[in-house]
Amino acid sequence: MTQILRIDSSARHEGSVTRDLTGRIADRLGGEVTHLDLAETPLPQITETWMQSNFTPEADRSPEQRAALAQSDALIAQLKAADTIVIGMPVYNFAVPAALKAWIDLVARAGVTFRYTENGPVGLLEGKRAIVAMASGGTKAGSGIDFASPYLRHVLGFIGITDVTFVTADTLMVDAEAAHRQADEQLAALAA
Fold it and tell me: What is the value of pTM for the model shown?
């Protein structure tokens, strides 16, 4: 059975376009869904203690350092267990929400989800698929002011997830009907 990790990052629950889309995408794909709601259960920002723990060799970590990385380890385990990651990404001020950035900071770990080589970084989470549900009020996906989708595509590729599809309901404040229609068409074209 396909394992789906559904990640919602919208601060809105009622009327959230990305939450609606992630739910519909997960339903369309079928499979077992693990739901991570970053607004419901906010993640901490990384700290100096976290950084020191992360860069201490695993065998040398103190119990406190292991505890500092426990949440990161759990999030990475969720990510590793998933075949498909469905990410709800509303665009806030031209970029990803802080809640989603906190998740990224906790799962992008050298030696765990990527490694450095003489030829540059190599992602360690290959063979996974990501579908990103993007919604924005005025930012057109792929435009010069869209810093969210290229960033997320880059980060996912950096950790080895290069099969990335976007379902976009962009410029909702300009033409909501057209934005919803566009997302519905992209959703209908998704292969299960």
Answer: 0.96
